[in-house]
Amino acid sequence: MGLVYQHIRIANAARPDLEEVDAKALVDSGAIDLCIPKLVALQLKLQTMEQRMVTYADGRSELVDYVGPVLVEVFGRKAFTGAMVMGNQVLLGAIPMESMDVLIDPRGQQLIPNPDHPNVPGALAMGFRTSRP
User: Nearest CA to 67 among 108, 34, 95, 101?
Assistant: First the structure.
């Protein structure tokens, strides 16, 4: 499978007065979080919430800023998340993808809404029990 890119919108969830950023994101289901370049974090005036240790594929590790709150949108589906500030392109990882209920279509090499929930994002609540009256 080749690389999959998707246009997404990123906003500062705490500052709706700021303009959103349109970004061409690399979609990576092997990555956990949303990753954004420093320029995007500055443009959105995102607050650093903590530092996170990132380990790269080559074994190197480094501390990066974890910023938020971030609102991500694709296909009209939204997710609230944080983002690691690193690299020179936006990377859409598994957590925001799961929250928006979107999937990678390997045959079409594209991101798609979950066909099981085409109109609204779905979510699992397995193991959750409602109290009985």
Answer: 34
